[in-house]
Amino acid sequence: MSRRLEDRNSGFEEGNMRVRVDGKQCQGHGVCYMTAPDVFAPREEDGHAEVLLDEVGPDLEAAARDGAEACPERAITVE
Ligand code: SF4
């Protein structure tokens, strides 16, 4: 199945991005949520990052990429 068809089936809006934090790689440095507080936030229990949005629209794309690039553990995936 093509990616585009998968996205349509899953309700993913074309032009939006998916952003994920790998919980095993994240060490809670906090650089991502200091860099992009509209996209990332600390979890209350351990300060590790979580993504605030299921999909990141074009308005926050640059912030999401900046946050991912700032992560010293390379724990953030943007696609
Ligand atoms: S910058 Fe990276 S290691 Fe630090 S909290 Fe964010 S995802 Fe985790």
How would you describe what is shown here?
This protein has helices at 3-10, 31-35, 61-70; strands at residues 19-21, 40-42, 49-51, 76-78. By secondary structure, it is α+β, with helices and mostly antiparallel strands. The model has no long low-confidence stretch (mean pLDDT 90). It starts with a helix and ends with a strand. The longest helix has 10 residues, at 61-70. The chain is globular. A two-stranded antiparallel ribbon has the order 1-4. A two-stranded antiparallel sheet has the order 2-3. The chain has a single domain, classed as Alpha-Beta Plaits (2-Layer Sandwich). Iron/sulfur cluster (SF4) binds at residues 21, 26-32, 48-49, 71, 73, 75-76.
What attributes characterize this protein structure?
globular, alpha+beta, 4 strands, two-stranded antiparallel ribbon, 29% helix, 15% strand, single chain, binds iron/sulfur cluster, Alpha-Beta Plaits, 79 residues
- Strand tally, please? 4
Identify the CATH class.
Alpha Beta
Overall 3D form: globular
Indicate the proportion of strand residues. Answer: 15-25%
Largest beta sheet, briefly? 2 strands, antiparallel
**Mean pLDDT across all amino acids:** 90
CATH architecture descriptor name: 2-Layer Sandwich
Q: Please give the share of residues in helix.
A: 25-40%
Domain count: the total is 1
Examine the coordinates and then state which fold CATH places here, giving the name of the CATH topology. Alpha-Beta Plaits
Distance between the termini: 18 Å
> Which blocks of ≥5 consecutive residues have pLDDT under 50?
none
Number of helices: 3
Class by alpha and beta content: alpha+beta
Q: What's the gyration radius in Å? A: 13 Å
Bound molecules: iron/sulfur cluster
* Largest sheet strand order: 1-4
